[in-house]
Amino acid sequence: MKSILHPLLCLSLFAAGFGIAQEAAPSAKSPAPAAVAQPAPTEGFAPLFDGKTLNGWKNPYTWGEAKVVDGEIQLTADKKFFLRTEKSYGDFVFEAEVLLPAGPANSGFMFRAKVEPNKVTGYQAEVDGDPKRGWSGGLYDEGLRAWFISPRNFVRKDPTPEQKAEDEAANAASIAEFRKRAGDAFKRNDWNTYRITCQGNRLKIEVNGVTTTDVTDDRDKSGPLAIQHHGEKGATYRFRNLRVREL
Question: Is the alpha carbon torsion for 232, 236, 240, 246 positive or negative?
Answer without folding.
Answer: positive
